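Ticket #4471: structure output looks truncated?

Reporter: J.K.
Steps to reproduce: submitted the chain below (190 residues) through the standard prediction queue, then opened the result file.
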Amino acid sequence: MLLAGHIGMTLAAAKYAPRALRDIRYRLYLFLPRGIHTFREPWTERLDDRALIVGSMLPDIVDKPLALFLAPTLVGHSLRNYGHTLVFAALVLAVALALAALMKRQWPLTLALASAGHLVLDLMWFSHRILFWPFTTSDFSPRNIHEWGPHPDVIYFSAEILGLIVILWIGLRLIVTRNVRQWLLTGIGV
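Returned output as attached by the reporter:
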């Protein structure tokens, strides 16, 4: 998956899926007796979009320079290497937990979860040699795209198109509501 797919799909999953679930719960709530469930602003309303964006691309931010410029022979010229492992995801989460506790901020956890979501969007379970490194072979050699799963072209290009639609939708909403400056400063605005 490329830039638009990762960013757009992560924003959609983090921001819009919980809203849709909340709307469904609210409709069900109308039929329940009072006092069973109260509604308040979900925690997803306060997620920092900037942390979601950086986190959604973090494994690629680590792996692409390694494979293309810094140490291509070390990683077998593979564009998916250390940043696409569960060890990396666990390390990012550990650092995020420490930072969140020290800073009393939520954005490090948002970044860590978005980074872990990158592995899901890349369907890394089809590349278990990389996902479970160092518990498997350290061979990061590039794989054939057809080894990534059934119909990889359709999956990846559909995700790119959907991601681009989400990005454009969010951008348009920011412009129409005149929240671009607020979003740039706080990461929250849509």
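Triage note (M.O.): checked the attachment and the full token line is present. The chain has a mean pLDDT of 77.
Status: closed, working as intended.
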